[in-house]
What does this fold into?
Amino acid sequence: GTCRSGARGYEVIRAVLFDVDGTLYRQSPLRALMLLEILAYGAFRPASGWKVAGTLSVFRRERERLRGKGGGTEPLVRLQYEVVATRLRTTPEYVKAVVEEWMFRRPLRYLRFCKRPGIEPLFESCADLGVRVGAFSDYPTKRKREALGVSPWFDLHLAGTDPEINAFKPSPRGILHACALWEIDPRTCLYVGDRPEVDGVAARNAKARFALATRGFNRIQNWVEMEGER
It folds into this structure.
């Protein structure tokens, strides 16, 4: 069960690893829906609404600054909240509570409406070819995959904050860790993401292959099926 390819000297694809945020679902409509929810929340609690919005903005910005700085002894799962708390002069516990509520829990109800078309047929093609399917994202993936209704297809789910990885993309550590768990050569792994400057570079750093999700899952499915017939 392999997906054959002669491109760049790679002979087969044995696994497809997916980014989640912006890849399995579109982020623009989700962020628009969440902005409306924050505005509605702030209409009744103006001070709290502004504080939540400001915390989320700083958290996203500081998260980007942490790219490529992981892999050390300090756990990113804690550091990501501490740097924001220091900047905002609040507590890491408050930052974590806001992020958990507004980035990890509340968006789940909207994910099915933002799901990219063509996901299931691609998963079915991978299953037919015996190609493994997994998820690796900077953020935790399990609850999002469940909300999207695609969990049964995945046999691996990883995040950059996992202790075994402790690095955000474009570090290759997550992709390499997935390949190690699958016991495959990284050159036989296809990583699917939505940001060439982050996901694509991570794949290149890991010597894996890369497909851009924003070009369409139908196109990726056709490519996988074509390569599988060689």
Summary: The CA atoms of residues 187 and 221 lie 19 Å apart.
